[in-house]
């Protein structure tokens, strides 16, 4: 039985699509759909997470609204995906965060930032926050390095545990066995498909967002965001190695690797999210899952806040504003980490899982399931 | 106040594949072009929206075609499906041009993909549009817009000023007002009349009330009627249409591809009295696909039911509506509104006539009936493995054959045999010239693109002179 309206609608639409199949060349969703004659909730969750929301099928479809068949794959799959994020959330008691995602993320972020500012003040003389601190270890005069590592390590570890549990639920839901560890070939294929956003291009003809005419640059903006994020992560990783292995303490000079990586990543993580945000405002409203728009925007805003506060910290690090900027930046990043399992961040996880499943199935020739 | 009507070099009436190819080709020849499309922007393009491929000759395999398809072979295929009801010179000209059109259409932004699942038999001959017919149309509209073609939607042409085989102006309705537009040449690419039930009734009587129209509701045949009334020579059998059996639950118009059913060969087909009426296993399905619309049209109330059992359920392409399903034949009959005893006895008679054989739906196998009228010549298997299933079917009309006669320039021929001075036709409205009867997958789009491109170019040159 299909439990939600979104799943029922997805079932209705996939039944129509499966009888048509004109979009077979557009992305992975339709060939995957064709291996079934009917759809379980797990099938639909798999297909919905395989969908990159490129929008091509919506404008290619002779049955999309206002046609009476009302085939709206992008919107319906966005609704199913949102439902799937919630159903895989771990622990279960935190699943409702997905219902009012924008509100929760804002509140948690505000609380996190406030906690860092107050913490800095409480631990030091209030004027230390607005003092000028320079040279190696300047940041740690405001917050000891070990405290930072413990806090962020714990937050990151928690996020990883929660997301692993979510992924296990997803993997089981889409009908994959726990033991079915994919072979390296599928894994490599899925990584390539994620890394190149292979299916965010309408089968080669590009994505559609606003209408069937305007070019859509979401792929570029997503790349800037994704690789920007990875560069920032790499920056932090290199800095950690510097700290523990080489014994060199932040802040680093502008030409040093962590700063270069962080700056480049930060720039990507500014332009990318802004581009995605603008694309969202332009998107054909019929394709959008409006009630969940806050989830999308909250996540984009978090990434943007991370990069903007990080870059501001770099620019202002030798001024009295450094202390406050550091508190804000750390507060935002901390919030980004702890909300990861309950934010749009998980789309990447389940999309990767779906692509992995698709790569696995493709290796064995996409057999029709009777 | 007298409003001076705007003048264009070329007026294109219609908004599908043929119309857009004509518009693009005319604009590329330097003409100013106006396209008048009766449908709204979403429903633009007539039956092109529901198409998925075109059948063009080509010398070698491509990224999306598995092998060569020579002009001779295409001609033989056309000859076979039409049974000779074609204008050989015109058809061969079209086939020759189709080679170039395959390249040209891609240059206009149309993208192809390998043949779709379930259509492997067409992988060599037919070029499938990436994303289907509407995606193909969108590409043509994008190109047309970039070139400067003007398009008006919800603009139905209701009058043509034609004198002595020469077009002067057209009257169209838009936003509740009538407008007149002049042009030096006109391309009529406005489709057939299959959506016009009243017109269909003049040949079919009340039977046509039960027809379902697979494509656009806009093919009312207004332009075709106006042209024939103004002395353009007609071509094609006016009474005939391409009719297949589609799911009876399909909407009256625009149900498109998803309402088709490919399961006739797997079961038996009965009418409202639960009686069989035709050999369901006469030949492989693609060859018999298009006779069942007419067969069902001849049955009382134009309704029939494909009945099969669980053995066959997953042997054909899924369709949009679920089959009726029951554990016993009488219950199934009740669901369908058939006489349970009559259905049971029809199935019993069928089952006892089935001779043992080796079932293989990919070939003309040896599973057949004996001493049964009508027989089932192939793929006859007893129907006794519950649950039992049924699909109700009605005639689904794809297109009509009546059209305007044209020459190799796509120029209309008048009743006196003379070519029109400045009137051209392309697409379904003139398909009857090369497709007098029958159908071969994708040939409609070939006719549209080839003659659209020719008509646009000729109209532009005509306007210049």
Task: Reconstruct the topology from this structure.
The complex is a heterodimer of chains A (370) and B (465).
Chain A: H1 5-20, H2 29-33, H3 41-50, H4 56-60, H5 73-88, H6 101-123, H7 126-129, H8 145-173, H9 184-196, H10 218-246, H11 257-282, H12 293-316, H13 322-339, H14 346-363
Helix pairs in contact in A: 1-5, 3-5, 3-14, 5-8, 6-12, 6-13, 8-13, 8-14, 9-14, 10-11, 11-12, 12-13
Chain B: E1 6-13, H1 17-28, E2 33-36, E3 53-55, H2 71-82, H3 88-107, E4 112-113, E5 126-129, H4 133-147, E6 150-152, E7 156-163, E8 166-174, E9 177-188, H5 197-204, E10 212-213, H6 222-229, E11 234-235, E12 241-247, E13 268-270, H7 285-288, H8 292-297, E14 304-309, E15 324-326, H9 329-336, H10 340-353, E16 388-400, E17 403-404, E18 411-413, E19 419-425, H11 443-464
Parallel strand pairs in B: 1-2, 1-9, 2-6, 9-19, 10-16
Antiparallel strand pairs in B: 3-5, 4-5, 7-8, 8-9, 11-17, 12-16, 13-14, 14-16, 15-16, 18-19
Helix pairs in contact in B: 1-4, 1-11, 2-3, 3-11, 9-10
